[in-house]
Design brief:
Helicase, Ruva Protein, domain 3; four-stranded antiparallel sheet; N-terminal domain of MutM-like DNA repair proteins; disordered N terminus; alpha+beta; DNA-binding
DNA sequence: CCGCGGGCCTGAGAGC
DNA sequence: TGCTCTCAGGCCCGCG
């Protein structure tokens, strides 16, 4: 099925990328900015490189699946990895500028769309074969008006995210729980894989009505409490794994249900078999025996 | 107004 | 072996 599943960038993978980029971006200046292909999912304006050049990064943060480089000018560089985006970091010891900056039309590696040359001596390359990713420069005061960012739900690992918050967000929703958890306005950062994983850990069916985790007044039921605990556990474990995986690579069998159709359910004591169904055009993996 | 389905995009893998 | 077809999913948009 998807042999690259472990690389799909959801919150944990984006957090690992943030940790890797932090030391070469924070307090560094954009000395050169090269745009090879402006036609990412959102087209980069012709003014992008000139506007970014010379700016200094104050902090590199994250919100859901978005990386946010806060610049000292008040601008924010908003980056999204989409499906297949990645950043490559190269440090040159002698401080010479790589020759690819000499000519914007030089070939470069396939799918290297945007290249940042930082003052700290690092070259950061955004590579994205499918171009579902996006990069944008937004002024800080316009961040909340950013279509997706402004509507983003709570951070799953934030202290403000609890069963009451999730129950309220799901209250009255007739959509399946799978769809609600995939909705970035309900909760920021989960994608197809970790939604499956969290539902499995919470022993909740992806087909259940989202509203069913709340009472009619919006109070959390036991299922909402289980689900929040499961989401936090799955996110924390995945961040640890994603961070470690960047260094030593191999990281097999990290999913309990995702991409395990036909195999034995791994819930302790459960003898069910993982099934695959399609919801809203996307694969859902779950155990019909223990997930109710 | 909410929910669903289609489209974008490319590479991997299946099948003929 | 080499071609063609399908499928993967984050996000957006249009339709009912």
């Amino acid at each position: 099925m998807n042999s690259r599943a472990e690389e799909l960038p959801e919150l944990p993978e984006v957090e690992a990328v943030r940790l890797a980029l932090q030391p070469v971006m924070e307090r560094a200046r954009f000395e050169q900015v090269l745009v090879r292909r402006p036609d990412l999912r959102v087209r980069l304006p012709g003014t992008f490189a000139a506007r970014l050049k010379g700016q200094t990064v104050r902090t590199l943060g994250r919100r859901g699946k978005y990386l946010l480089a806060e610049l000292t000018s008040g601008d924010v560089l908003v980056m999204h990895l989409g499906m297949s985006g990645s950043f490559r970091v190269e440090i040159d010891a002698d401080g010479t500028t790589p020759e690819r900056f000499d000519d914007e039309r030089s070939p470069g590696a396939a799918h290297d769309h945007v290249v940042f040359r930082m003052s700290a001596g690092a070259t950061i390359t955004f590579n994205d074969p499918r171009r579902f990713g996006s990069i944008a420069l937004v002024s800080r005061k316009d961040l909340q008006r950013h279509r997706a960012l402004g509507a983003l739900g709570p951070e799953p690992l934030g202290p403000e995210f609890d069963a009451a918050v999730l129950a309220r967000a799901c209250r009255g929703k007739k959509t399946p729980l799978k769809a609600a958890l995939s909705d970035q306005r309900v909760l920021a950062g989960l994608g197809n894989i970790y939604v499956c994983e969290a539902l499995h850990r919470a022993r909740l069916s992806p087909r259940r009505r989202a509203g069913s985790i709340a009472t009619s007044t919006g109070a959390p039921r036991a299922s909402a409490c289980r689900l929040v605990t499961a989401i936090k556990k799955v996110m924390n474990d995945a961040i640890r794994r994603a961070t470690a995986a960047q260094e030593d690579g191999s990281d097999a069998d990290r999913f309990r249900v995702y991409d395990r159709e036909g195999r034995r359910c791994l819930t302790p004591g459960c003898r069910g078999t993982v099934r695959r169904i399609v919801q809203a055009g996307r694969s859902t993996f779950f155990c019909p025996v223990c997930q109710k």
